Amino acid sequence: MDPFEYIRQKVKRLYETEPVIHINMKASHSRTARQEITAVIKGVYKSFFQIEDCDVKHPTRLTVQYNDLLTGQALIKELDFVPNTTK
After folding, report:
1. What is the DSSP letter of 73?
2. What is the SS3 assignment for 5?
3. 25 near 32, Cβ under 8 Å?
4. How far is CA 7 from the centre of its chain?
5. Within 13 Å of residue 25, how many CA atoms lie on the same side as its CB?
């Protein structure tokens, strides 16, 4: 199984079993440049998944691409995946 499909399946399993996650977003996401947020996975799609930020007064929905997880731009604590960022 290729890494993209592996990540997608893992996120889908989290969505179905334990949708509350802790995600670290890197600074390249200008609107979500926070260290760690608690979020609920709201949807899993072919090339991205949608989360709802639980740490704010008015919940905000964000999209995260699986590629962000593969490159280390976003990290989910509950996911047993470490991106290969060496070149």
Report:
1. S
2. helix
3. yes
4. 10
5. 18
pTM assigned to the model: 0.81
Q: Per-residue pLDDT tens for 23-73?
A: 988 755 455 555 788 999 999 999 999 999 887 888 889 999 999 999 888
In the chain, alpha helices (H): 3-17, 66-71
Q: Residue 47: which residues within 8 A CB-CB, separation 6 or more?
A: 65, 66, 67
CA distance linking residue 37 with residue 73, whole number of Å? 14
Can you list the positions of beta strands (E) in 1-87? 20-25, 36-44, 48-53, 60-65, 74-76
